Amino acid sequence: MRSSLVNKISIISHGLRFDLDMFESSAERYYENTYGYCITNRGAQRRHRLPQVLLLGDELVVSVLRRDNSPWTLRYDGDELNLYYDGEWRQSVGLPEALPFFGKTLTDGVRTDDVISAYGAVTPGFFLYPDCHYFDKGAQCRFCSLRAARSTIAKPLVTDFPRRRIMEATRHIQNSGWHIPMITNTTGTPVDDEDIRHTILEPLKAIHDACDPKIKMHLLTHPPQDFSIIEEFKRVGVSSIAFNIEIYDRKLFSSICPGKDRLYGYDKWWDALAYARDVFGDYQVYCGIIWGLEPVESSMEGMEDILDRRIGLATNVFHADPGTAMARRPQPSVADITALAEYEGKLYRKYPDAGTIYDVSMRNTIDWEVHNGYLE
């Protein structure tokens, strides 16, 4: 396994220790975390200017997760940013390049930084309808810090995406000179299908209409009650879609994702995935599961079941975010992450038509690394 991936797995498992204010006075321009959909770091404020990811080399990035008891330390030695493990130097790291479509002001006075989201280090997109009605019922997913983030550190971010605003922001993205392989859109969970049409479908159509030339659009969302909306997603320009079930084990799904279980249903979730696969095609529909929230064997079974259904696999590694019911749950061990990664590698060989959503390394998953042979 490449040393950069060894370090990434360990950092995802343990997090990093560093002073919150270590970046405040930095003159370097880099992509700073806007916390669009999770808090990740206890006590962090915008003024701390924390990067969303670190560059590990070998085209790998890793999430900046501040954890007080981590054996990993991040610190500046002069102008060089270094990683230490139990006091021993491991490697120098870089900061993600500042995104050229940030720092602009739209005609309605809103900053692009507060409209556009960015995933990993390079992939732009939007977080449409940044809320989830399961919180109102006390039935939110137990690992989710979306509402806590949006009511605190991410409060400056916009919540409304009228057509003019989103088209203008999309043109800033496309005219920035940045290589844009796709625009990726994440959503919260509206109350009903009519809200989906208004808060998600309409902005998606605006993004598609603004793109010239057209580019791929990925959508991560909650499946609708009326499956015909999945066809509407495709008609407005979505080229791939993900419905993340998160937990494969049925009983654990019920306890960890109570809203999804009671108000939508485990079996209906799989039905929605199958319907979407028939609309978008084999392996153009993705299902995400989270490593570390169920036994390793259950995650392995779930990964294989997903791929065997001709659905793409999307994994994430659990991180214990402040403001959630699982804030004190241990993150998965290096051994468990490594075992799951090795099994995922076998599955990619068994299902060669399956790929990853992104063609780049992402911050809290190693799907791309596994698919591209970094374990070998």
Automatic annotation (TrEMBL):
PROSITE patterns: RADICAL_SAM. SUPFAM superfamilies: Radical SAM enzymes. The keyword Iron applies. This is Elp3 domain-containing protein. It comes from Kibdelosporangium persicum. SMART domains: Elp3. Keywords: Iron, Iron-sulfur, Metal-binding, S-adenosyl-L-methionine. NCBIfam families: variant_rSAM. Residues 112-356 form the Radical SAM core domain. InterPro entries: Aldolase_TIM, Elp3/MiaA/NifB-like_rSAM, rSAM, rSAM_sf.
